[in-house]
Amino acid sequence: MKRKHLLLCAALIVSASFAKADETNAGNAGKKSSISFFSDDVPRYKGFAFGVFGTNQYGLGGWGDFAPVMAGGGISAEYTLPPFLHKNLDLGFSLHADYAHIFPNKDSTLKRDDDIGASFSLWMRIPFTLGNARFALQPEVGYGMVFHNAEGQNGSDADGWYYDQVLSVAPALRWIPQKLDTLEFDIAPLYTFAPEKYSHTLNQLGFRLGVVWHIDSFIQAKAEAKERERQAKIAEEQRLERERQEEEARKQREEEERKKAEIERLRKEAEQAAADEAERLRIEEEIRRAEEEARLAEEARKAAEEEAARIAEEERRKAEEEAARIAAEEARRAEIAAWPNPLAAIVAQKAENFTPDGDGVNDTVILTPSIQYVEETPENWIIKITDPQGNDFRTFKGNGALPESLEWDGKSDKGETVVSKNTYTAHLTVVPSRTDRLRTKAQEVKAETPVETGLLLEVIVPEQEWKIVVQGFTFDPDAATFNKLTPEQLQKNREILDEVTKQIFDHPGANVVVEGYANNVFGTKREENEELVLLSQKRAETIVEELVNRGIERETLTAKGMGSQNPIAGRRDRANWWKNRRVEFRIKK
After folding, report:
1. Composition of the chain by helix, strand, coil, percent to 5
2. pLDDT in the model for residue 569
3. Cα separations in angstroms, 105 against 63, 114, 380, 407, 458
4. Confidence band, pLDDT 50/70/90 cuts, at residue 327
5. Parallel/antiparallel/unpaired status of strands 557-561 and 511-517
6. Which of 76, 103, 116, 466 measures 20 to 30 Å from 154, CA to CA?
7. Rounded to an integer, what distance in angstroms lies between the CA atom of residue 380 and that of residue 375?
């Protein structure tokens, strides 16, 4: 199938969704279709959702010359963050796992390619209605890894398993059926970009079709239906009680009317027996007593009505409070049941160009640990920082809740300072509470984050002499050349040399001694004199040549091979021998 035909199919599917909305509007008493953004008629989801999808993409540019068509499918998991934006906007993230088969060109150097990918996406949800139809725009940006199982032909290097990083953009359109609030149908144009391992860049354009089930919303809808049924039962019981009270009030009114009629009858008899004073007085006394009884009965009736109203109001209030408590408990249990295992994270803030050299700039790193999906405070935690060789360097630990943040000054537990241009790693280990361990079977939760160091400038004599120590240079084995290094190693060497060059230019008029150091493995004088001094001299000269190529005047540079002199780590400290293999730059005015 040609690329333009498949793109036309995707456009027809999107048009069909809008046509469905027009059909719904046509039956709405002849009202015209209208679009409304941020509409409250569109369901607003929370928590987790799961989905399946299919994809079809087409290669662009150089990648299209290899394989123009890719088809596949996969599964996804979404999480909507708690609402905090205005106008019904939501943010969230997704995890995708997919499989795709590539259909190469007949004359391509690629014979077969099957891809397995995993990616993490961030998205914003913008709800709108079109007539009575409900939609949401959900543009998302993703980052992930794709593993290729490729088979090349005609001498192609793209053979076997290898992986690439990939960026993706998907301005998705979601359609929510009127009677299925927990389902969404996903229609999205899809663009992916990845710098391939070999000689081309992967550019693909296509579309994604899928369906998403919002599990948290489904559980909430079930709970609300059950609560409505219980409230209806309570309302019916209250109605019957009101009817009983109204019947009692009716009987009281009839009794009052009977007593009034009796009073009237007695009054007439008194008028007829006016001549008999004694009878009159008797009748008047009876009338007085009847009136008193009527007054007391009226007061009793009013008191009974007030008491009945008070009792009904108290019962209504208690019923509402109990319903709210039960609903809150059910919601909390449903939320906890949907949680995954505890998830830890640690973030290094202010870690750009971390140089704890005492100049007041970038001297500290802020470590921010966190843990999610736990009911109770953890039992204890520990943060270990390891050096570039994986050795323990600095340890922080405590019991109970994790600290909001920790400030690290670049020092080890022994008072040593980090080295220039290297990668240290902060490892977080959290032991959850006994309740969370029983619930999830997770005894420990771990996370880690790298901390990159910059170039440290040590002041030897203020305004006169400085020193830079670098353990990050990589040379060819037993040589002073860079010929066999990987592109990554070459790039790191270039970055270090560029920063050293900048520091030298920042000290105009200074002379620089470049000292090369090696590690005496066997501890013999023969190794020192016949190998290490010569090798360290050549490596120092290589660094001098690189600095000259970057514009430093050769007359200001001196190369010295120091062999294994002035070791940083002793012979028994094998874990830190790597620090002895270094290049030192001594800048003097």
Report:
1. 35, 35, 30
2. 86
3. 11, 15, 58, 56, 59
4. confident
5. parallel
6. 116
7. 15
